[in-house]
C-alpha cells in the first residue's frame, strides 16, 4: 500500500468498537458484553440496546467486572469487558493477571479513552502505561487500532482467538485510513509506502499523523515509509528487521509513555536481531495535562510536525 487519501469523515475507534460489537453480537450468540457504568462513553450502549439480555453493567467495580468476565469465559461465553483504559489496565490489573491471564481464559478487555488524547479529562484519566503493563503479562495479546476499518476487523477477529486480548481504543476522532478491502492479520504489521529515507513505526492515533508527515515530506523530496503496528504483542519481528535493513532512519511514535511501550518493544527486537538506532517519540516519562487532544499531541511531540523534525534533522 503506497498512497493514502484520507476520507472526509473522522471517527473515534471507541465508536467503531460499539458498532462492530453490535454486529458481532448478531453473528455469535456466545458474545456477552460487560461494562463498568460507562456504556455511553465506551459505546457498548449500542450492543446493550440490541441485546439487553447479553449485556451486564457491573457498575463502578472494574475488578469485579474482570472477575465476572472470567466466570463467563469458564462457561463457554466470549466476554468483552469494557471501560476506560485507566480503569481497565490500571484498577483491574490484579484480576487481569491472576483471574484471566494465569488460567489463559477467553476474555477480551477492551479499553477506550487511552493515551493523552483523552484530552480535557486530564492526567488522572490519561492512561499512558497500559501497553507496557499488558504486554508484560504472559498469555496476553495486545492490539492497538488506528481507524474505523481496522477496529471493525479487530473486534471480530479477536473473538476467534481462544485466550486473553487487550484491545486499545481512543476517544479522539481520527481519519479513516483504510478501505473495507484492506487485509489485516494479527501479528503482522501494515507497511505504507516504500520510502528508504526513514521508517516511522506508529500505532493507534499516531498512524494518521505519520501518514500526514509522509505526505508532507514527499513535497520536499524525502520519501519515508509508515508501518502501522496494530498488533504490539506478538510483535512482527520480520517487518522490523526488514525496515531496519532497508531505511536510513528508524522512528517510533506512540500516544504512550516511551518506557515500556511500542518503542521499547521495537528496541527489544533491534537489540537482539539487528542493532540500529531508534528514535522514540512518545510521552517522556511524565504525566499528561488537561487540554485539547490536538494541542496535547503537539505539546508532547507526538504529532506529524514532530515526525518531520526528526526525519529532516
Backbone CA Rg: 18 Å
What would you give as the CATH superfamily of the largest domain? Answer: Thiamin diphosphate (ThDP)-binding fold, Pyr/PP domains
- The tally of strands reads 14
What shape does the CA trace take? globular
Helix share, percent: 25-40%
- Strand proportion, as a percent range, falls in 15-25%
**Strand arrangement across the biggest beta sheet:** 3-2-4-5-7-6-12
Distance between the termini: 27 Å
Q: Uncertain runs with pLDDT below 50, 5 residues or more?
A: none
Structural class: alpha/beta
The CATH architecture category of the largest domain equals 3-Layer(aba) Sandwich
Overall tally of structural domains: 2
Helix segment tally: 13
Could you please say which CATH topology of the largest domain applies here? Rossmann fold
Largest sheet: 7 strands, mixed
Can you characterise this structure?
The protein is built from 13 helices and 14 strands. The protein is α/β, with parallel strands linked by helices and 313 residues long. The chain folds into two domains: 10-175, Rossmann fold (3-Layer(aba) Sandwich); 190-312, Rossmann fold. The chain has a seven-stranded mixed sheet with strand order 3-2-4-5-7-6-12, with helices on both faces. It has a five-stranded mixed sheet with strand order 9-11-10-13-14, with helices on both faces. Strands 1-8 form a two-stranded antiparallel ribbon. Helix 1 (13-27) packs parallel to helix 8 and helix 9 packs across helix 13 (304-312). The mean pLDDT is 96.
Short description:
The protein is an alpha/beta fold and 313 residues long.
